[in-house]
Amino acid sequence: MLREYLPVLLQIIVAMLFAASALLVSVLVGASGKRTRAKDTAYECGMIPQGEAQPRFSVKFYLVAMLFILFDLEIVFMYPWAVVYKDAIKQSSLIFWSMLSFISILMVGYIYALKKGALEFRK
Length: 123
What we know:
69% helix
């Protein structure tokens, strides 16, 4: 049984050796010296940086992204259903009603998101 795990163990050892060697090479080859305030500032084409480095995003951006992923995954579940439904349409209506209930639950979530104003971008 241990022979079956030997390739996995070998891969883990190689990965750890690679990571350690990459860190060692970066320490040895990397620039050394005293850190100063000028060295720690971000390079902005020779101009003195002003303001924050990263702009702040509204929470609405993340909310819309999560809703997109949620409703986009619904399609991932519909493709296999469509293939099975095409072959089993004469056998049972259970497949149809299960997908209809799945879509109705998602529609309730979509209507809830619309009522809460999750997709409105007005300030």
